[in-house]
Amino acid sequence: MKHSYLLILVSLVLFSCKANAQDGFQKLKSPHSVEATTAKLSSILTEKGMNIFATIDHQKGATKAGMELRPTTLVIFGNPKVGTKLMQCDQRIGYSLPLKMLIWQDVEGVTWIGYWQPANLAKQYDLDSCNEVLVKVKNAMANFAKAAVS
């Protein structure tokens, strides 16, 4: 009987780890507030030559609608030189561009920054000839997020 419970527990842990790894959403814990993490990310993006197209404060929107929401901010950014290369491989990717990072506070007050891994784009679009560009985007996204939480 003990072995059955242990097997079930191990299976649940493995299944949940696999599900989290497969969903493709990368997140990092930030020691800063949502506001400070957003400001740091925006500064880093600007320094690296990214265009920040919009910063959306979802909490502010919720307040305007008479609702409550923990701090949640979406930063939309990109670089036309990179985005254009991806669209030259499969123009439909324009639907998923520009890139985005979400910064939010969870129910325990912890701040997170997260984004969809660029490998997900390769699954949705015909980007076989853009692997080199996707690797650069993957590395850049990871570096932006790490720098924002440092």
Describe the model.
The protein is of the alpha+beta class. The protein has a single domain, classed as TATA-Binding Protein. It contains 6 helices and 5 strands; from the N terminus they run αβαβαβαββαα. It has a 5-stranded antiparallel β-sheet with strand order 1-5-4-3-2. Helix 2 (34-47) crosses helix 6 (131-149). The longest helix is centred in the N-terminal third of the chain and has 21 residues, at 2-22. The termini are far apart. The model is unreliable at 1-21 (pLDDT under 50).
Keywords:
150 residues, alpha+beta, TATA-Binding Protein, five-stranded antiparallel sheet, 22% strand, globular
* Number of E-type strands: 5
Distance between the termini: 47 Å
The CATH topology name reads: TATA-Binding Protein
The major beta sheet can be summarized as:
5 strands, antiparallel
**Beta-sheet strand percentage?**
15-25%
Number of domains: 1
Rough outline? globular
Chain oligomer state: single chain
Strand order of the largest sheet: 1-5-4-3-2
Radius of gyration: 18 Å
> How would you name the CATH homologous superfamily?
TT1751-like domain
Give start-end ranges of low-pLDDT stretches.
1-21
Annotation field: number of helices: 6
CATH architecture: 2-Layer Sandwich
Kindly name the structural category.
alpha+beta
The helix content, as a percent range, equals 40-55%
What is the CATH C level class, in words?
Alpha Beta
Question: How are helices and strands ordered from N to C?
Answer: HEHEHEHEEHH
| Overall pLDDT score | 88
